[in-house]
Amino acid sequence: MEYVSPEGLRLDGRRPMEMRQIRAEIGTIMKADGSAVFEMGNTKVVAAVYGPREVQNRGQQISDKALVRCEYSMANFSTGDRMRKPKGDRRSTEISLVIRQTMEESILTHLMPRSQIDIYVQVLQADGGTRSACINAATLALADAGIPMRDLVTSCSAGYLNSTPLLDLNYVEDSAGGPDVTLGILPKLDKVTLLQMDSKLPIDIFENVMQLATEGCKAVANYIRELLLENTKELEYRRGV
Amino acid sequence: MREQKGPSLVTPGEVLGRASDVKAGRGAYVAPHNSTVYSSLTGFLRTISPPADSPDQRPIVEVTGHKAQGAVPVPGSVVIGQVTKVMARMASADIMCVGPKSVREKFTGIIWQQDVRATEIEKVDMHLSFHPGDIVRALVLSLGDARAYYLSTAKNELGVVSAESTAGATMVPISWTEMHCPVTGQIEQRKVAKVGS
Amino acid sequence: MLHSKSFVKKSRAGRVTKVVREHYLRDDIYCGASICKVCDSSVARLSASASTILVLDTNVVLNQIDLLENPAIDDVVVLSVVLDEVKNKNMAVYNRLRALCSNSLRKFFVFSNEHHKDTYVKEMSGESKNDRNDRAIRVASQWYQSHLGDEVRVLLITNDRENRRKAVEEGIFAETVESYVKSLGQPDLLDLLVQPASEDVDMAEVEDLRPSKRKVIYNEHKPMSEITSGLHRGIYHQGKLRVNRYNPFEAYVGSESIGDEIVIYGRTNMNRAFDSDIVAVELLPQDQWHEEKSLSIAEDEEDEEDVHLVPSSADDAPRTTLPQQDSSRETNPVSYRPFGRVVGIIKRNWHSYCGSLEPMPMPAGSGSVANALFVSKDRRIPKIRIQTRQLENLLDKRIIVAVDSWDFLSRYPSGHYVRTIGEIGDRDTESEVVLIENDIISRPFSAQVLACLPPLPWSVSPIDLSNPNRMDLCHLRVFSVDPPGCKDIDDALHCSTLPNGNFEVGVHIADVTNFVFPGTPLDDEAAQRGTSTYLVERRIDMLPKPLTEDICSLRADVERLAFSVIWEMTPEAEVISTRFTKSIIKSSAAMSYVEAQARMDDSRLMDPLTTDLRNMNTLAKIMRLRRIDRGALTLASAEVKFQIDTETHDPLDIGMYQIREANQMVEEFMLAANVSVAKQILDHFPLCSLLRRHPTPTREMLEPLLRTAAAVGLHLDVSSSKALADSLDHALGDDPYFNKLIRILATRCMTQAVYFCSGDLSRPEYHHYGLAAPLYTHFTSPIRRYADVIVHRLLAASLNIDKLPSIFQDRPQLTSISDNLNYRHRNAQMAGRASVELHTLIYFRKRPTDAEARIVKIRSNGFIVFVPKYGIEGPVYLTSRAEKGGGEWYVDEPQQKIKKMDGSLSYSVLQAVKIHMEVVEPQPNRPKLQLTLI
């Protein structure tokens, strides 16, 4: 199956180094302390952050740091076929853990001891790259909630099909069975907080693919920063400052 | 302290300066590995010059987020709470405001018998100091234990601020130990806060 | 810009899902014309001088691909919408189109109209997919015309009337294929045209086919929906059709749902299906089973069984039809296979076939279109009707024809002529036919491939000498033993005595992977070819000659690079240690088998080289005995060798291939090297090694052998390979040839050995039955086999000399490579045999001969004989063809005899008879070898 045509176009018309269209919105859920909706192409994810608030389960309280909890779920209608068990299955548990660990690295937890920060992420439309979209949405929601962070965490996926590194795989390209690298970085600090890969890649090609994913993450970071700045300006304007 | 308002907007992770040049205030932190001060919130950047007499002459950079973070009781802050339980040696209260700000979610505080007042702390009768439902102003002593903050009302201006009588009317404070119900005329015992000039 | 494509898909299980995909439109897609000033012309393919640029419709591409491959058609824009449609409908045509587009000599440009912001067309409500695609083609043509301006005419080629009409309305130039080709003024191009099927042309133009006047021969195929529901319900069965090579009216469909093969008998039941089509079959009612003809040699109006080479495996042997039902006997009924008929074709597997036209009287007036019947060389293909203007020219030529369609009202399929190969009977033409039929790639190596070779003259360089991974073994007395006149020497041996009394034996194989690197055009071409093909008069090389005959070949007295396997073994041939290394060797002698044998036999010679040979021989004999003890089979080969006249290249003499001790010695060490390497690579790469296995033959396959043996009172134990080997050893008859004959019969029951990827099968399945080896691979001939090149790479990686190429991590790719190698190996063998048969025919054409023969099989109207001297076998008829059935002869099955009714004469299996062989021509241009009883 041809994923990159000899003319250099992928199945949906992008070139190998191009990302899908990104759109995001902040503050969509009123009740939450911070919330955001993040879209990468047809993948749409909503994140809500509650906290810092008192730890509900006293036994889990950490005396010098905040407790970060994360829950990832997919809506029943998010994929082509209606899903029966959106939560609690292996994949959801794994991704919840992954997102928690990624975000925990960036939140300055020592500033909020004995409290807990809840991140809820739900996938509304799944078209490949849900993990990355969730992390990006969580970052936005955390920034919206005003939780102090070391840096924004951005994430992007890249793969290798038909001997070409491809950026931002969609569902069709993901299901091709080729290698799929998901990368999460702190863009300004240039540090990696998440690196996952399916399948196998020789090390020299892996470096190229990871480099491509890093560039994708930085592009997402620019977009998020722009959005945050604009949003703040808007709020200040409304407050009359 | 003079304030200088800088109109620039920053996002988390943006460099604010070197640790040798600026000091990290609220909303900023110092990265240990390269001694740089980064922002940790989204908001306006403000540089505050230090007071002339402080040994550390570095300006303080602060970032104020637009979302007020829910207030968190910090040792030394004055809080307003509602008493939930009164027992022989302690009373527990739900903290509802920290300073002038109300909290997003209630925190639990405990007032131990010895922290109710400054004098004769052994002989304090809890039931004569607080009743469940009273609004008290207290000082946060410490983070306390896993369950609750430790509060103290051992100052004149701390203690019961408002209370309801058994009849259901709001009582009027008479002295630092008594409150008077206007409807029935009964006097009830409380550790009353001195509100006033 | 982002658009969204959404459509509804139905899965096989019947579930309906909505699919939504993104569709990006771009503004950086260029038109590909070099004259265009706006677009980036670095990707331009269309020539600057073109006055007309063609845009093709999908159906034109699908039907007229042969025409498009002709260089007269150029400056074509292939739209991506057309490309996608072709890909979905016919993968073979798609691949050919892609080859055209990437061929730098042809001016075909692929324009991605689906993603260009000006030419993207969104489906309108109520518009069918085809209409939308047609509209997209028209919009793209119009865009091209307005983009390139008036200097160039953009011409839309379509046979669809509706499309043409709408195009003209919109102001686009449009023509049919026929009118365009006619306008080019090259009449022979018109022959390549496929006549339009009825859907394209308006019905009124087709002649009146009055239904009553046409005999309905075939049933209409059921529509796809009915077939799918039938498959679901289990009334239809799906499988690949395999036509019996020796009886084209008999075919088998292997069906998983039945668990057995369904027999399709008769043309009507085959219902226009071709060999290797995927078909849907309906079972016939039980009372219609066993309707086949008796065990006679297949006779029908056209052909009969041919004289051919002795089969060397079960795959080559004719399929046995069901045993004849003899009501007089009370034998246990053999498991009857179900019979069925084809009700629909799920996937066609049509391609081009070579053969010649059936002789027919010339039509009045030459130059007009004539209908001719094309008979393919491959007997499994039915005759094909074609139209041609060059009938007179083509009658005596071998040509290639492609199939287009087969209407249910037509007796034969319709096709069109593609090209001529040469005259019938001309040896070169027939050789080429053999190559084409067996899909052997024989075109000369392209410039890109030749560019990968190191420059000549080549010699071992200081870099090679200083390579730490390469040992300098020039001090060893290395020699090679090969067939006479062999120039591509890939193996050499050495045998030296060690101070402790043991021997150091080494097998040195040409280091081909030092010159052929993965991913280069040279490597890709070799992988495609898979193996060198040995025809009688020439050799089709896998690698270019400079490599095979000079740089890699371990010629005498020159330093060459090699990959060595070195053993230390005791005088009793027990291996003490094995090591592998890359090396540099200098062969001291390149001998032929005869030479080596003579040296060993001449007791006067005592020089070191002869001593080494004798030592090796002794070791080899011990190793061979050990192998036979373990159960290795020694089967007799019926191979013949031709002596070719050096000038005319005609065969001068043919005779059986002689096996000497020297042959067996070399073979023994090659086997040992292959086994050692197999162990090494499997240890390091248990999941991605390329090995070779030989599946154990099943009892069913051995049936014919057992029956024949039983008829002469011989009992064979086939419980294991060792048991069979022992039985064969003890099978001695009164005449000396008997044992060899039994062995030859055993050979034809064996399956072929195949390559496979170790990750695909479990350990017990790696077994090689014939060699009784638990592990085996091919390592010793990288010059002529690509499998050995792969094993060399695996071995080098296991020794950490080189990195393992990334292809080894892709298991499906590896499996497809090993499948290709098996396919090419098979084809090369068949081509070799066909070439030998061809030369046999040429030899006997001028020399009718008498010879001794042995009967190997009894038929109802005669028997099959084997002629040992020439290694061929063929039918001898006792009754003339006019008499159907047995005539005055009848068959005694259990005794395997054919007896005359009056009891005067009888012939039994394995009996010796004298026959006369000569070449006859029952039809002009169709020579065949005929055997008659003397």
UniProtKB/TrEMBL annotation, chain A:
GO molecular function annotations of the record: RNA binding
Main location, first listed in the record: cytoplasm
Pfam families the UniProt entry points to: RNase_PH, RNase_PH_C
Record-level GO BP terms: nuclear mRNA surveillance; poly(A)-dependent snoRNA 3'-end processing; rRNA catabolic process; U4 snRNA 3'-end processing
Subcellular location: Cytoplasm; Nucleus, Nucleolus
All copies of domain Exoribonuclease phosphorolytic, residue ranges: 18-148, 151-216
GO CC field: cytoplasmic exosome (RNase complex); nuclear exosome (RNase complex); nucleolus
Keyword hit for Cytoplasm: yes
Presence of the UniProt keyword Nucleus in the record: no
Keywords attached to this entry: Cytoplasm, Exosome
Protein family per UniProt: Belongs to the RNase PH family.
Protein name: Exosome complex component RRP41-like
TrEMBL record, chain B:
SUPFAM superfamilies: Nucleic acid-binding proteins, Ribosomal L27 protein-like
Domain Exosome complex component N-terminal: 9-46
GO MF annotations, alphabetized: RNA binding
Subcellular location as annotated: Nucleus, Nucleolus
GO aspect biological process, one term: RNA processing
Cellular component GO terms, alphabetical: cytoplasm; nuclear exosome (RNase complex); nucleolus
Residues of the Exosome complex component CSL4 C-terminal domain: 102-143
Annotated InterPro entries: Csl4 (IPR039771), EXOSC1_C (IPR019495), Exosome_cplx_N_dom (IPR025721), NA-bd_OB-fold (IPR012340)
Pfam families found in the cross-reference section: ECR1_N (PF14382), EXOSC1 (PF10447)
PANTHER family, A to Z: 3'-5' EXORIBONUCLEASE CSL4-RELATED, EXOSOME COMPLEX COMPONENT CSL4
Protein name: Exosome complex component CSL4
From TrEMBL, chain C:
Domain of life: Eukaryota
Start and end residues of each stretch annotated as Disordered: 297-335
Keywords tagged on the record: Exonuclease, Exosome, Hydrolase, Magnesium, Nuclease, Nucleus, RNA-binding, rRNA processing
SMART domains associated with the record: PINc, RNB
PIN domain residues: 52-165
Principal cellular location given in the protein's record: nucleus
Pfam family, one: OB_Dis3
Domain RNB: 470-801
Biased composition (Polar residues): 321-334
GO biological process, one term: rRNA processing
A GO molecular-function annotation: endonuclease activity
InterPro entries reported for this sequence: Dis3_CSD2 (IPR041505), NA-bd_OB-fold (IPR012340), PIN-like_dom_sf (IPR029060), PIN_dom (IPR002716), RNase_II/R (IPR001900), RNase_II/R_CS (IPR022966), RNR_Ribonuclease (IPR050180), Rrp44_CSD1 (IPR033771)
GO (cellular component) term, any one: nuclear exosome (RNase complex)
Cofactors required: Mg(2+)
CDD domains: PIN_Rrp44-like (cd09862)
Subcellular location: Nucleus
Family statement drawn from the similarity comment of this UniProt entry: Belongs to the RNR ribonuclease family.
Protein name, per record: Exosome complex exonuclease
